[in-house]
Specification:
heterodimer, A: about 500 residues, eight-stranded mixed sheet, 14 strands, B: about 450 residues, mainly alpha, two-stranded antiparallel sheet, 2 strands
Chain lengths: ~500, ~450
């Protein structure tokens, strides 16, 4: 274990930070909206020191950092949940009396079909935070075996015991592993988790240990995203032990519902512990309340972008409306690139000179990417649709006539704000805060006008029509551009967002 | 090994009295096989030679030399046998049958060189007998060491008729040639012994060479620690030392033994009853092999298939209880068959001894030895089940306990006097069997927990 621990602490000033950020599968390893938001916060508050607890799945999936570590980050601890059961030696273990109760509580809280009470949750947190519940207890003890088999006999409707058993292991051992990693963290004055899930769980554990405030900022809704992942089998395969991939079929009912329940219960635990609970827009705030967040703890802080940096981009725009439709995002199913390609078919039929650019890395889901390439050729769009790979947004955005977002799930996409600053109207699917962004939220906001158009999810025809309306009607296009610029500048500036978080941090820490 | 179980199931499937009998005879010969047949043949040679080879001491010298050859070769290779058996079955499980033959030749090379050196040093250092005698002892020893390694494969081979014929041929050759070589006295008899065993060794080896494909001549993969379990070496040595410990104690206690040839001593009093008793375990062995390799092995396979294929926990538990029943029935049948054999021998022992011309003075010792070897039979059955369930630690524990108890209790029995002779051996085995039963009980109780929670 020592080698692993050494590798995990890449910056070990052991410094006591102001804010401990709890991150799951994001900054500094993965590019994307959440990561750049985190980067913004850290760079934007240079007088605040941060420590990082990074939680990943497979160690191999996180080898290259895409962000430089700012100097106000004083400690990084990394934990990879796939390593979870490689550590426990194979000896029989008589668990102590306490552990028997702990393991039963663990089952009752995370896996029992009935919604658990708060007392059980607190008991589970207590045993995780105190280190009383060890990896040995979970992986090897008789008490654990009994808790698992009892659950199977009483509730499991999936016949395969080995599937059930390994699903339980895959769920339980990372929790202990995260508790162990949390125990290695140097103390900070405030906890800030950027999602529920494992990061949020780490927050709950550390809150117990440090007795400090715990802030939760959710960009998407973690539990909902996990449900989407679970619907697309590949995620379980990544997290399950290689050899068992074939047997852990996430589409089979009970195993899948166990996973969903597991993430819901973690979410519930995090909502009960965190205060405030921040959403990017009101739609998500409502969702958090439905999922168990107390309404008086919730609030909305939208994303902001660096206006002084983005506004000048408009000057580099070529004259007129470029006949270029761009989709900026990773080529993955959640971005629904295929709908974009199908929409391009209609657009190109109407306006043959139009080009469609797909701008984003294709390495995350190679299979999906190759399906997209095939779709382009089968629709005869080879001359109009181009895959550009990753490009710098500030270079590419001014060259687009319209930016399209076909995602089936988003929170509050920064790229929309960036597009506006660059003077590009946006056609987006009706997900996350996109309608609020494009059409305006408050009455005052709506008066600024439509900065593009909102269409239904996975509707290539509607998407194409909206794009054509903008490209084919310069007046309409100009109005949308003006609305976008105005809205971004009034409501979505980075300075505003940073100021809100600075206030939140200082009030939660006492002084800063 | 799977081969025998498969063959036995095929024979039993014919479902007639003659086929059932055939299965048991085959199983009995295979399992008790070579070394019980060796005892019988050697005794036959001894009996035939009485009155022909003079002086009679020469016959005793032959019998004692042979006994030492068996004892030392079994102890020397006992570890290798268990160790290599596991190596072979692991490779077969991995579907790599082509590595087996080169490794058999590798381990035989090591056994030959090792046993040869050991025998050379001991014979040169401890014996002042004629060169020819020493040479024959050495060659016999090396041959036996190799034979014990080769017979590991018998239960895995398919042409059982051929195996039985080979055995018949080898032992007949031994007995017949001893008859012809009698005029050359001790050396003649030792040469006959060598001829018989060497024939068995080379014919079996020939069969194995034919059965297994190989890509190279010789290999030493079994020296790779990742592919073997070193603790099995210790297990095998302990178990075989346990079997012989009481005998050696009786041979080297001046009160109970006499010098026979060179440094070799024997105990008239102790040896004869125990070797007679060993002949009584053939029926038990046959029953045991049939039960273990058919019923038990079948449920065992089904159980672990059920685990892997994702059956319900309830179904797994049910298969486990079926397997438990198979083990219980197996042990019960051993007890029944062995019990009847022992009772019959108790009844007829006096007549038998009279018929064999052996003094009734040996009767009490024969009785207790009969019980002792029956326990030994049960212990072997238990150890086999533990090997199946991969409980190597328990096998080692039982084997080590056996050798320690047998030494301690045999010494105690000598201290207590002649009426306690034989109790050391029997009581130590009884204790091991009882402990083995409790261990088996717990192992079966914890089987699912072990399989799932401790496997990886």
């Amino acid at each position: 274990m020592t080698v692993q621990q050494k590798n995990a602490q890449l910056i070990t000033h052991g410094g006591h930070a102001d804010v401990c950020l709890l991150l799951e599968g994001t900054w500094p390893y993965v590019r994307g909206g959440v990561s750049s938001w985190i980067n913004q916060i850290i760079l934007g508050l240079p007088d605040v020191t941060f420590s990082i607890l990074f939680i990943g799945g497979q160690r191999e999936a996180y080898t290259k950092r895409h962000y430089e570590i700012p100097t106000n980050v004083v400690h990084i601890e990394e934990v990879f949940v796939e390593d979870a059961w490689h550590f426990a030696p194979r000896t029989e273990q008589e668990a102590s009396e306490g552990s028997v109760r702990d393991l039963q509580n663990m089952y009752r809280y995370f896996h029992h079909p009935q919604k658990p009470d708060e007392i059980t949750g607190e008991a589970v947190l207590g045993s995780l935070a105190s280190g009383q519940l060890t990896m040995q207890d979970v992986l090897r003890s008789r008490a654990s075996w009994e808790a698992i088999t009892e659950g199977y006999l009483n509730h499991c409707s999936d016949p395969s015991f080995i599937n059930y058993f390994w699903t339980m292991r895959t769920m339980q051992s990372p929790m202990v592993m995260i508790a162990e990693a949390a125990a290695r963290m140097p103390r900070a004055r405030l906890l800030h988790a950027i999602s529920t899930g494992y990061a949020g769980l780490a927050g709950c554990i550390l809150k117990r240990r440090w007795q400090c405030k715990f802030i939760l900022s959710e960009h998407g809704i973690y539990t909902k995203e996990r449900k989407i992942d679970l619907a697309q089998a590949s995620w379980i395969a990544e997290n399950a032990d290689e050899a068992l991939n074939s047997s852990l079929d996430p589409t089979s009912g009970y195993i899948r519902s166990m996973w969903i329940r597991f993430f819901e219960r973690i979410g519930l635990m995090v909502y009960r512990n965190a205060n405030p609970i921040i959403a990017l827009y009101d739609g998500n705030r409502q969702r958090q309340i439905i999922d168990g967040a107390a309404p008086d703890r919730t609030r909305v802080i939208p994303n902001g972008i660096d206006l002084p940096r983005w506004n000048p981009l408009r000057e580099s725009r070529p004259q007129g409306i470029a006949p270029v439709v761009g989709l900026i995002g990773r080529v993955v199913p959640i971005k629904d690139v295929k709908t974009f390609i199908r929409a391009m078919r209609t657009i190109v039929t109407q306006m043959p000179d139009t080009e469609g650019w797909i701008i984003g890395p294709e390495d995350e889901d190679a299979e999906y990417a190759s399906e997209c390439h095939s779709l382009v050729s089968s629709m005869g769009l080879e001359n109009n649709v181009r895959f550009l790979g990753f490009q710098k947004a500030d270079e590419i955005l001014p060259r687009l006539g319209v930016m399209v977002l076909t995602s089936i799930s988003e929170a509050q996409p920064l790229v929309i704000l960036e597009a506006w600053c660059a003077g590009t109207p946006v056609v987006s699917s009706d997900v996350g805060s996109c309608r609020e962004l494009i059409e305006g939220g408050t009455a005052e906001d709506r008066d600024l006008g439509q900065a593009g158009e909102v269409v239904a999810i996975a509707d290539p025809q509607a998407t194409a029509n909206a794009v054509l309306r903008l490209l084919g009607d310069p007046e309409r296009w100009q109005a949308a551009q003006a609305a976008g610029v105005a809205r971004a500048n009034r409501y979505y500036g980075e300075a505003l967002m940073l100021e809100r978080y600075r206030k939140l941090y200082s009030s939660s820490m006492g002084t800063l | 090994m799977a081969g025998i179980g498969f063959e036995l199931r095929k024979i039993l499937a014919r479902d007639s009295y003659s086929s059932t009998l055939r299965a048991y005879v085959y199983a009995g010969l295979l399992s008790a096989g070579p070394w019980v047949l060796s005892i019988i043949s050697v005794m036959l040679i001894g009996i035939m030679s009485i009155g022909v080879v003079f002086p009679e001491l020469l016959v005793r010298q032959f019998l004692v030399t042979t006994t030492y050859l068996f004892a030392t070769s079994l102890i020397t290779t006992g570890g290798l046998q268990v160790f290599f058996t596991r190596f072979v079955s692991d490779r077969l499980f991995e579907k790599k049958p082509h590595v087996i033959l080169p490794n058999l030749l590798g381990i035989m090379l090591i056994a030959t060189v090792g046993a040869g050196l050991l025998a050379f040093v001991l014979l040169w250092w401890l014996f002042d007998q004629p060169f020819l005698y020493r040479l024959l002892v050495l060659t016999n020893f090396v041959t036996l060491c190799n034979l014990w390694l080769v017979i590991i494969f018998l239960s895995g081979m398919k042409q059982y008729n051929r195996i039985l014929l080979t055995m018949l041929f080898g032992y007949s050759l031994m007995v017949v040639s001893s008859f012809l070589l009698r005029p050359w006295g001790l050396n003649g008899l030792l040469f006959a012994l060598l001829l018989g065993h060497a024939t068995l060794l080379f014919v079996f080896l020939f069969d194995i060479l034919r059965e297994y494909r190989a890509e190279k001549l010789i290999a030493f993969d079994f020296l790779d620690r990742k592919q073997v379990f070193l603790s099995l070496l210790l297990t095998g040595v302990c178990y075989n030392m346990g079997i012989w410990a009481d005998k050696f104690i009786f041979w080297f206690n001046p009160m109970t033994s006499e010098q026979i040839i060179g440094p070799l001593r024997a105990s008239m009093l102790y040896d004869l009853p125990i070797f007679l008793a060993y002949l009584s375990i053939i029926p038990g062995m046959a029953v045991f092999l049939v039960r273990i390799e058919t019923d038990f092995a079948e449920w065992y396979e089904r159980l672990f298939d059920a685990v892997r294929e994702g059956q319900t926990l309830q179904h797994i538990a049910q298969l486990k209880s079926e397997m438990t029943i198979a083990i219980r029935q197996g042990l019960q049948e051993i007890c029944k068959v062995q019990g009847i054999t022992v009772v019959l021998l108790f009844l007829f022992a006096p007549k038998l001894l009279t018929w064999l011309g052996i003094s009734h003075f040996y009767l009490p010792l024969l009785y207790i030895d009969l019980i002792g070897v029956s326990f030994q039979m049960l212990l072997m059955a238990l150890l086999n089940v533990f090997f199946y369930l991969d409980k190597r630690a328990i096998v080692l524990e039982l084997s080590a306990l056996f050798v320690l108890l047998n030494i301690a209790l045999t010494l105690l029995s000598q201290y207590l006097g002649p009426s306690f002779y034989g109790y050391g051996f029997t009581v130590s085995l009884a204790v091991c069997v009882l402990l083995g039963m409790t261990r088996l009980n717990k192992t079966l109780d914890d089987l699912e927990y072990d399989t799932f929670m401790l496997s990886r």
